[in-house]
Amino acid sequence: MTACRRNAKATLALLAFLIGDACALEKTTAAESWADAQLPVRDGLVAWFDAGRQNAARESVQLAPVAPNITINFLLDGSGRGHHLHQPVSSARPVFRQSASHAWLSFDGQDDFLPGANWDESLTNATVFIVAAPRSNSGFFRALFSFNRRGRNDYQSGLNFDLGGRNSANFNTLNVEGPGFGGERNLLASPLPFGTWHVFALAIGSGTNGLKLFVDGHPHGIRERTGRSILRADQFRLGAREYDNSGSFPATTSFFDGEIAEILVFNHELKNTDRISVGNYLASKHAGIGDGPRTAPLVAVTNGPPVQWLVPGFEVRELPVSLRIVNFLRYRPDGQLCAGGYDGSVWLLRDTDGDGLEDRVTPFWTNRTIRAPIGAAITPPGYPRGDGLFLPNIHKLSLVIDTNRDGRADEEIVCASWSDNSDQSNVDALGCALDRDGNA
């Protein structure tokens, strides 16, 4: 009977955890028993997510262990304050990775994130540490983490820690915003390679040097924080942001592409000695994490071929022509090759000596009325208006056509147009197709 009562209590505790029962998840000031005992500073710790301690944490609440290369549904908080993260949507869960001595989470940059709710934390100042390896940056403020007041944008009510608004070929921007320090600002002093691990520390105080970023213990950028606004953490997002600039209700967006091993949030600005101590602890703990091909930086190949196929059986020969920023290639029914550039130009390429390689280039459309055509559809033989191409480009679908049949297009017909009602001018059309009657 005693054993039955113990099992019943354990089951009830697990159910309370899963449904977020506030009574069962009472906030405490002591870190969880399963958390890493080596952390040198714990005073003011309000959230602590350590990928390497998750299976010990799961065992404590009778959750099944998570295996390597499997998505993870819960990320348990080691601070003792019950700020656990839970992703109920299986397709939006990051993947749990593990090596012989390290563990981390891999986010795909598409829809992966781990949310937390009902934190009810108000931070005047803060210190945040995160051990991470960004893998790419496709723009639009891809975030390692953020938190916010419920129903408010993160940058207006809490904190966002992201890679900036522009895409980049290397890790060259870290943007931090919140009440009293609004507007994009890069705090990264020098670029870093993608795929390499770093310990980031963000100290948030007030005044001229209110925000200070440290990377691997070295000082980087600073920015001013005006006033004494509260950083509100009702909701937390690991691997994403929560905002909407159109005036609608904030939504989860700006998903992170990369790896995260550990994050700690303190409710005050740590003294320099304490910040250094925690940074050294994390650097030692995660030394050598991710060693191997997955996170090794890319190395430029010397004397490589013009094109490298992934499978054997292809022959590659370089055309004896020079064209800039070619976005598409299409053969016309008469055998001429159409090449389109990102600047909206279209050229015709012909093989004049019969060797199978196009060697002559003539312009087909050079009027700068088309922006960033990505694909094209060739008008069918006998098209009544003449030879031409349907070109999907920014905000419209255009038909450029040779009406007088002199080999060069002389008219643009806008077949369809649209607007996204934003200040962005990003590629919003990637291709088109024709039906049996030649309609786009």
Describe the structure.
The chain is built from four helices and 28 strands. The protein folds into two domains: 17-285, Sandwich (Jelly Rolls), CATH 2.60.120.200; 305-440, no CATH class. The strands form seven sheets. Strands 1, 2, 5, 6, 9, 13, 14, 15 and 20 form a nine-stranded antiparallel β-sheet that branches. Strands 7-17-10-11-12 form a five-stranded antiparallel β-sheet. A four-stranded antiparallel β-sheet has the order 21-22-23-24, with no helix packed on it. 10% of the residues lie in helices and 32% in strands. The longest helix is centred in the N-terminal third of the chain and has 18 residues, at 2-19. By secondary structure, it is mostly beta strands. The protein has helices at 2-19, 54-60, 154-157, 272-285; strands spanning 45-50, 70-71, 74-75, 85-86, 95-98, 103-108, 114-116, 121-123, 126-134, 143-148, 159-162, 175-177, 198-204, 207-215, 218-225, 231-233, 235-238, 241-243, 251-253, 257-266, 326-331, 337-341, 346-350, 360-365, 377-378, 387-393, 396-402, 411-417.
Key structural traits:
single chain; 440 residues; mainly beta; Jelly Rolls; 2 domains; five-stranded antiparallel beta sheet; 4 helices; disordered N terminus
Estimated structural class:
mainly beta
* Total of DSSP H or I helical runs spanning 4+ residues: 4
**What share of residues are in beta strands?**
25-35%
Number of strands: 28
Low-confidence stretches: 1-15, 18-28, 292-297
How helix-rich are the residues, as a percent range?
under 10%
Arithmetic mean pLDDT: 88
CATH fold topology of the largest domain: Jelly Rolls
Q: How many individual domains? A: 2
Please tell me the CATH architecture of the largest domain by its name: Sandwich
Please report the distance between the alpha carbons of the first and last residues.
Answer: 75 Å
